[in-house]
Amino acid sequence: MNEIFDTILSAAFVAAVIRTTTPVLFASLGGLLSDLVGSLNVALEGMMLIGALTAVVVSAYAPWYVGVLAGLAVGGMLGGLMALFHLRFKADVILVGFAVNIIAAGGTVTALNYATGGDKGTSINLPSKAVPSLDLSFLDAIPGIGPVLTQMFSGHSYLTWLAVFLVFAIWYFLYRTPEGLRFRAVGEYPAAAEAAGISPNRLRTYGLVASGALAGLGGAQLAMFNFVGFTRDMTAGRGFIALGAVLLGRRHPVGTAIAAVLFGAFEALSIALPGILPRVPGEVIHTIPFVVTVLALMLSSKRRVTA
C-alpha cells in the first residue's frame, strides 16, 4: 500500500496524469461546447479516432503541425456533417453520433490498410512525426522546488499547453462575451433565444463543428505524442470518458477540466499499478477509469436529483 501512495505522490505520476489527461481534456471541451447548445455529441470517440489516423498519415508526408491541423480539420468536418444530418435532415443527433462511431471503428482500419499498404492493425511502418515537447528546464533555477516542478511540467507537448489555455479561453468566451451568452441561451431555452433573433441552428452548427475540431485535436495528441503512431481502436473509450467529464463537471469549462484531470489520474494509475501489483490481472486494472466514470456519473446524477 505504501508503494501505491509513494507512486501517487511522486512528481513522475503528476507528469503522467498531465499526459493522460490532455486527449480527454480536448474532447471534453468539445463535448461541452456542443452540449451547451443542445446538441450532445456522442461521436467524440469516433472523431478522436479519425483525427488520430488523419494526423498520423498526413504527418508522414508533411511537417508535424500540418498533421495536427489535419486532425483538427477532419474533426471539424465530421462535426459539420453531424450538423447537416441533425439540423438539415432532422436526424436524431444521438443516432448520427453512434453512426459516426461505427463508421470510424471500421473505416480507420480500412484507411490504415490503404495508407500502409496492407497493415490493418498499426501504422508502425509509416514514418509519422511527433508533436515537439516544451522544455521548461529553466524551472530548475527556482530554489527548493525547481527540480520537482521541472519533472512535473517540463517535456509535455505544445498541445498540452494549448489545452490548458483553451480551458480559460472557453470560460471567457462563454461567460464574458455576448456570443457566449447566446451560446448558453440556445441550450437552455431555444424558443426564447429564437424570439430574441438568435438562430439556434447556426449556433448548434458552430458547437458541433468546434466539438469535432477539438476531438480531432485530442486524437492528434494521442497519436502524435502519447503514442507516436496509430493503432486500431487506440482511443479505447476516451471519447465516452470525455462525455462523462462534461456531465460530472456540471457543464462548466473549469469543472469539466477538473473532471478530465480526475479521469486522467485514474488512467495513469491503471498504467502504474501493474508494476506494483503484479498478481492483479492487467485486464482488471485497466477497467479502473471506466468503473470510476460510471460511479462518478451515478453520484453526479444522484446529487442533481436530490438538489
From TrEMBL:
How does this protein sit in the membrane?
Multi-pass membrane protein
Keywords from the named record: Cell membrane, Membrane, Sugar transport, Transmembrane, Transmembrane helix, Transport
Q: Name one Pfam family in it.
A: BPD_transp_2
> Where does it localize?
Cell membrane
Transport is among the record's keywords? yes
State where it is primarily located: membrane
Q: Which residue windows are transmembrane per the record? A: 12-33, 40-58, 64-87, 94-115, 158-175, 206-228, 257-277, 283-301
- Name the source's superkingdom: Bacteria
Q: Kindly provide the name given to this protein in its UniProt entry.
A: Simple sugar transport system permease protein
